[in-house]
Structure formats: C-alpha cells, structure tokens
Amino acid sequence: MNLISSQWLGKKPPIYFHFVTILLMVLGLGSCATLGGDGADSTSNSTDKVAIETVNTLIEKSMIVLEEIMQNPDSTIPSSLLQVAEALIIVPDMFKIGFGIGANLGKGIAMVREDDRTWSNPVMISMGGGSFGLQIGAQETDIVLVFKNRQGLENLVTGSMTLGADLGIAAGPVGVATEASADSQFNSEIYSYSRSKGLFAGVSLKGQKVEVDKSSNLSLYGKLVNVADVFANRVSATSLNVVNNLKNKLRKLSP
Fold first, then answer.
1. Rounded mean pLDDT of 111-116?
2. From residue 222, how far is each of 49, 162, 217, 239 by CA, in Å?
3. Burial zone of 212 (CB within 10 Å; 0-12 exposed, 13-18 middle, 19+ buried)
4. Among 192, 238, 244, which residue's Cα sits nearest to residue 216?
5. CA distances from residue 85 to 12, 47, 104, 136, 253 in whole angstroms, order as listed
6. How many C-beta atoms surround the C-beta of residue 165 within 10 A?
7. CA 157, CA 68: separation in Å to the nearest integer?
8. Membrane spanning segments where (predicted)?
9. What CA–CA distance (Å, rounded) separates 63 from 160?
C-alpha cells in the first residue's frame, strides 16, 4: 500500500500532498513512496470499499462538471459540437502545480458513443504530463475533451495515448454566441476545455498522456477488464446505478 496516500483515504488531502506526489511522478521517483507491509491483507476489505466509493464519486463529479458547464450560456460547449461528438473524456479536479518544473495529474472517465447514439460504459483513466518554465503555484482544474471520432479514443486499447501526438487537438470554442461563428466543420479531431475558479475556456493540452487506470477499473467492474469490452458494454459495473445515471444524463446533454 502507498504509505503516502493511505492516510488520506476518504479524505481531501492537503495541498502539499499533491505537490509531493506529482513531483515524485514527474521525476520518476514515485516508487520511493511505496513500501510493502505484512498487514496489507487485514485492511484489504476496507481499502476495497473506499476504492469503490472513490470511483463512484469520481464518476458523479465528472457528470456534475459537464452539467454545470452546459448550464451556463457563456461557457457552454457548442451544442453542434456535442451532437457530432463520438467520444468524451472528463477529468474533474486535475491538479496543476508548478515550481520551476510544472506538472499536471488527474483521474477521470472516458466514454464512446455507440452506433445507436447511446453512450458506452466508462473507462477509468488517468491524465498527466510535465512542463518547464517560470511557474509557481498550484491549482485544481476541470478538463473536458470532446472527440469528433471515436476511433481516436479507441487508441486506449493499447493502454495509453498522447494528446497532440496520436491525434490532433485544439482549444475548443465556448458559449452560445460562438455557435454561429465557430468552425462548423470542426476540423480538429479533439477539442479541449478547462474550468478553473468558475472560468471555462478552450485550452491546449498537447503532450498530455492519457492512460487506462487499471486499479480504478478493477474497483468499478470487480475484475480486470480491457478497454474494448468496456466500450462495447460487454462488462457490467458493480455500481450499476451510478453508471446508468451517468449514461442517461449524458444522453440528454448530447442527443
């Protein structure tokens, strides 16, 4: 068990926890924070329960992020873009930190639209990357990626993908006022958005890596799953109500 993170199970960790964790990951030192323990089995049940609750909360927060964005006429994603969207990634509370070396780290969901216009079960993912330059501070940001083509997101079948390298990505247009003037052809394969402190805007996320979060998918589905089976709805979630609620709300927002 990760001794740094275990003490914050079920709680919101302090800001220095994010700083230490992300910096270790960026520098490739994350393994230094992990130690074995003979008492791991005795706490496995409670840990599994917390993990499931954490995944359920993440799914619910992802839906809240999209709902709040779409409720504001000045910040909404153009409906014409959502109507042609074939896949989505939502990452609530991506943590961004900078101290000479900058880093982003967050967890979220990925979904594709089926041929009948319904949405797939969610694949749990992580997103992160580093940057360099003069940057000091920390911030939590909600991220939404709108994919024009579901094949792009299916690159996750291999386990990971890099935004801007595997697929073209651009900052997305926002607001009802942009509907008429926005690029009606939507030439980019992915449109990216971020929201921080209530401000929502298109954002560049080139170079960010998206990976399948195997442990979170294990918590959600109760077994090891592959991306193709999840996207094809061939596996059922342990928290069926949470997933169905997500899919129903998403269908209403993107008919």
1. 94
2. 11, 28, 8, 10
3. buried
4. 238
5. 33, 36, 25, 35, 11
6. 12
7. 30
8. 15-36
9. 23
Here the tokens at position 163 are 């935004």
Rounded to whole angstroms, the Cα distance separating 18 from 55 reads 18
pLDDT more than 70, % of the chain: 67
Distance set, CA 23 to CA 40, 43, 55, 112, 165 (Å):
26, 28, 24, 32, 24
Helix (H) or strand (E) holding 89: strand 87-112
Q: What tens digit of pLDDT does each residue of 100-113 get?
A: 566 778 999 999 99
User: Tens digit of pLDDT for each residue in 232-246?
Assistant: 999 999 889 999 999
Q: Which amino acid is located at 15 in the chain?
A: I
* 3-state SS, residue 90: strand
Q: By mean pLDDT, which of 8-17, 28-37, 104-113, 177-186 is the weakest?
A: 28-37
DSSP 23-91: HHHHTT-GGGGB---TTTGGGHHHHHHHHHHHHHHHHHHHHHHHHHHHH-TTTPPPHHHHHH--EEEEE
- Tell me the two tokens of residue 5: 């993170």
CB atoms within 10 A of CB 134: 7
SS3 216: helix
Does residue 176 carry a pLDDT above 70?
no
Closest CA to 210 of 123, 128, 113: 128
